[in-house]
Amino acid sequence: MTSTPLPVAVLGAAGRMGREACRAVEDAADLELVASIGRGDDLEAVAEAGAQVVVDLTVPSAAKGNVLWAIEHGMHAVVGTTGWDEQSLGEVRSALAGAPGLGVLIAPNFAIGAVLAMRFAEIAARYYESAEIVELHHPAKVDAPSGTARHTAGAIARGRAAAGLGPVPDATEQDPDGARGAVVDGIHVHAVRLRGLVAHEEVLFGGTGEQFTLRHDSFDRVSFMPGVLLGIREVSRHPGLTVGLDGYMDLG
């Protein structure tokens, strides 16, 4: 017996990520693209189309409102838009508390390799005294540091805490121009914006007499689509809010 394809709507469909997501959903036999929404389009078209999963690939200023709207209308949401803070995440959790059975995935990065790199970084962090992150993206990216870098810094901090490690050593006393970068969860993060890049991250670990580097590169936005499809297919099985695609993967 052939099952009915899962109806999906993509918000931000006119953007580069949105266009790829629309193609990926259309090419998937078990999914159906029922609405593709661009800037200024009425979200009610998503409800009228009968979407069960909303994929948000918009901009930080619109994402929270879109997710809350989806929850209010009984739809799961898969979100690739970054720029979330704890207050916004708290609002989503509160909305989901009144919508049992609904799931929301907010993924800083949908590339499978990037998710693995974050997990590996948490493991490696236990064994190295020093750790820093360099994230490199295209110049049209509106937030810095990237959501991936923030998520990676959090993973490193958890690994260091589990190993009982203290602060990363750094004797810098003067840095009026911010050359040492941002500090996220105790980890220095450096953001590069260059024409020609898509999404790249280096995680640098240092120990006595050695350096260990994890690097992931997305050269094309098509690299994010396996993760987007995974999120769409799995979100209904994970009620509540999940931050990070690793929550849907068996990574231990």
From TrEMBL:
GO BP of this protein: diaminopimelate biosynthetic process; lysine biosynthetic process via diaminopimelate
Pathway: Amino-acid biosynthesis; L-lysine biosynthesis via DAP pathway; (S)-tetrahydrodipicolinate from L-aspartate: step 4/4
Active site: 137 (proton donor/acceptor), 141 (proton donor)
Binding residues annotated for NAD(+), in chain numbering: 12-17, 80-82, 107-110
Catalytic activity: (S)-2,3,4,5-tetrahydrodipicolinate + NAD(+) + H2O = (2S,4S)-4-hydroxy-2,3,4,5-tetrahydrodipicolinate + NADH + H(+); (S)-2,3,4,5-tetrahydrodipicolinate + NADP(+) + H2O = (2S,4S)-4-hydroxy-2,3,4,5-tetrahydrodipicolinate + NADPH + H(+)
Keyword annotations: Amino-acid biosynthesis, Cytoplasm, Diaminopimelate biosynthesis, Lysine biosynthesis, NAD, NADP, Oxidoreductase
Keyword NAD listed: yes
One of the Pfam families matching this protein, by short name: DapB_C
UniProt keyword Transferase, yes or no: no
One term of GO molecular function: 4-hydroxy-tetrahydrodipicolinate reductase
One of the record's GO cellular component terms: cytosol
Location of this chain's protein in the cell: Cytoplasm
EC number: 1.17.1.8
Domain Dihydrodipicolinate reductase C-terminal: 113-243
Family matches, as InterPro entries: DapB_C, DapB_N, DapB_N_CS, DHDPR_bac, NAD(P)-bd_dom_sf
Superkingdom: Bacteria
Binding site for (S)-2,3,4,5-tetrahydrodipicolinate: 138, 147-148
All copies of domain Dihydrodipicolinate reductase N-terminal, residue ranges: 7-110
Function text: Catalyzes the conversion of 4-hydroxy-tetrahydrodipicolinate (HTPA) to tetrahydrodipicolinate.
HAMAP family: DapB (MF_00102)
PANTHER family linked to this entry: 4-HYDROXY-TETRAHYDRODIPICOLINATE REDUCTASE 1, CHLOROPLASTIC-RELATED, DIHYDRODIPICOLINATE REDUCTASE
UniProt subunit comment: Homotetramer.
UniProt record similarity statement: Belongs to the DapB family.
Name of this protein: 4-hydroxy-tetrahydrodipicolinate reductase
